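In this section we walk through a basic example: taking a raw amino acid sequence and producing a predicted 3D structure, encoded as discrete structure tokens. The instruction is simple. Fold the sequence below.
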Amino acid sequence: METEMTLSWLSDLGKSVFGSMDGLFYTLVAFVVIDYITGVCVAIHNKQLSSDVGAHGIAKKIAIFALVSLSSVIDRFLLGSEDVLRTVTTVFYIANEAMSIMENVGKVGLPLPQKLQNFLSHFEKYQGSRK
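The resulting token sequence is shown next.
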């Protein structure tokens, strides 16, 4: 019973901070984690593993979730809308993380599926500066 209450409380906290705990949000979480892991793989591959660089990477990932949270708050309290800005922000960072994952995979020497490259190339023109 206590575990269920704790999970319910955590779910409510997540919804109030990040908006809907939907498939887009879970996709973003997965892509952020995968991007970080593939970035570590690149550092290992290049023999450049660094705790400072890793900490900087984690800070950038935290900033992504801060922006998703900010977008959700703006949606609810300033725009009076349901997750419009949050959805745009989340999709932007999903695409950004997906392209970074592909870059990382390429840097360790793995071939990239052409269909995936074609799909993600549509997002490149909207990304601006990613670094």
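Looking at the output, two observations stand out. The chain has one domain: 21-127. Residues 21-127 form one domain. In the next section we compare this with other chains.
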